[in-house]
Amino acid sequence: MAQKKLPESGMAQDALFAALTDMKKNDMQYQDGRTFSLIYNAGQDVIEIGRRAFAMYLVENGLSPFSFPSLKTMETEVISMVASLLNGGDGAVGNMTTGGTESILMAVKAARDRAHKKHPQITQPELIKAATTHPAFNKAAHYLGLKVVTAPVDKDFRMDADAVRDAITDNTIFICASAFTYPHGVVDPIEDISALAAERGIWFHTDACLGGFILPFVEQLGYDVPVFDFRAPGVTSMSCDLHKYGYCPKGASSVLYRNAADRLHQYYAFADFPGGVYGTPTMCGGRTGGPYAGAWAVMHYLGHDGYLRLAKQAMDTARKLQDGVRAIPGLDVLGAPHGTVFAMVGDNNHNIYAVSDFMTESGWFLEKQQMPASLHVTTSPYHAEVADQFLADLALAAKKAEGMDGSKLSQEAAMYGMMATMPDRALARDLALQFLNDLYKLESK
Ligand SMILES: *Cc1c(COP(=O)(O)O)cnc(C)c1O
């Protein structure tokens, strides 16, 4: 099997850009608002601002704030704006990272190293999360050598403070909760859980990757939002993605700390490299300046009133979609979502994966979820344009799915359903690993 080689000589620009355009044809088409995950669309103008700023700083390298002081200025200004949005107080600090996963890795790393210093007797540190908390925490625990303890959620898919109290041991060094959760869009009881952590001197992290940039505005619009940010005195650190409801180009998230002493444990330095004394705030070494400029530009372009307007549009649309789903016979919304993200389920007579298949046929893309089987909806401001059509198509899809058994599902949905309900979860995990390994095999040319 021959591997693909570099072309013998360079390609003409026209041909290579034509090839890049052609490769996009099988990608999810987000421009017309038919996707409900992965893309946070606030309109073409916002996309263009991000693109222009990103391209301006594409070549600059974030590894050296001395060579490119512009990037350090943009980073600290972005962090400052996020910290004030999340009531960080005067001592708050933070850094930009490439995404929520890196922000979470950094917070867990800082907590691990602080615990190592303060409590050297703990040799098997534990992290408490819920099943509904993002897997980036499981990944962080896996990378950093922590044991994960999973606390149960209540009937509305929120963490339960009493269950967390029961899960705390002498080895617990990190507790986290979400504002809001990815699968169901609910804010956990963060005031209660962070207070429990504070009583015992345990690090508490609010994962506001998804909700951090919209909940402050949702609250200002008059909705009831449980306290989730640094106003809760037990909150040690927070993650807030800029490339989600901040509408910034991807590769932009933030990790925040109530004080610089805790943040110090995030950093890495090596003094003995012949190439120079080496130090980095986050995981990456060399990195493009694009995300710093992209985030700085979009945040300045939209401003407070821009974000408030977009939050209203997204919330109005999310409420309209939720009411619409509840009004369709056989469908329902899970729990009581606090923001713009929710999950829809079918009753016993409506297989929700079949509904998903019919929606795919009419050109909509909805991510499948499990435990229980449901479909994910992340509402973007842009969905205001398509909400009526979506609900009309959804009603038709539910009607078609009525009484359908699992045997008529698409191969993809059947496969997903099989994986989701396999009793042996270790085997499901091994299958997923093998699937990844096969997915990234090199194609022969
Ligand atoms: C998206 C998300 C993350 C992880 O962020 P990435 O940017 O995908 O790395 C973590 N937590 C929640 C709640 C999220 O929605």
The bound ligands are: pyridoxal-5'-phosphate
* Corresponding CATH architecture of the largest domain: 3-Layer(aba) Sandwich
How many structural domains can be distinguished in the coordinates?
Answer: 2
Number of E-state strands: 13
Average pLDDT, to the nearest integer?
96
Question: What about the largest sheet?
Answer: 7 strands, mixed
Could you give the order of strands across the largest sheet? 1-7-6-5-4-2-3
Q: What percent strand?
A: 5-15%
Oligomer: single chain
- CATH superfamily of the largest domain, called what? Type I PLP-dependent aspartate aminotransferase-like (Major domain)
Q: Give the uncertain stretches in residue-range form.
A: none
- By secondary-structure content and strand pairing, the structural class works out as alpha/beta
Give the topology string: H per helix, E per strand: HHHEHEHEHEHEHEEHEEHEEHEEHHH
Radius of gyration: 23 Å
Helical proportion, percent range: 40-55%
Distance between the termini: 8 Å
- Tell me the CATH topology of the largest domain: Aspartate Aminotransferase, domain 2
CATH class of the largest domain: Alpha Beta
Quickly count the helices.
14
How would you explain this protein's 3D organization?
By secondary structure, this protein is α/β, with parallel strands linked by helices. The protein has 2 domains: 52-298, Type I PLP-dependent aspartate aminotransferase-like (Major domain) (Aspartate Aminotransferase, domain 2), CATH 3.40.640.10; 304-434, Alpha-Beta Complex (Aspartate Aminotransferase, domain 1), CATH 3.90.1150. Helices cover 42% and strands 13% of the residues. It has helices spanning 13-23, 44-56, 69-85, 100-118, 136-144, 161-167, 190-199, 215-220, 260-263, 290-327, 352-361, 387-401, 411-421, 425-439; strands at residues 93-97, 126-130, 147-151, 172-178, 203-207, 237-241, 253-257, 268-270, 278-280, 331-333, 341-346, 367-369, 374-378. The strands form 3 sheets. The chain has a 7-stranded mixed sheet, sandwiched between helices. Strands 10-11-13-12 form a 4-stranded antiparallel sheet. α3 runs parallel beside α10 (290-327) and α11 (352-361) packs across α12. It is globular. The mean pLDDT is 96.
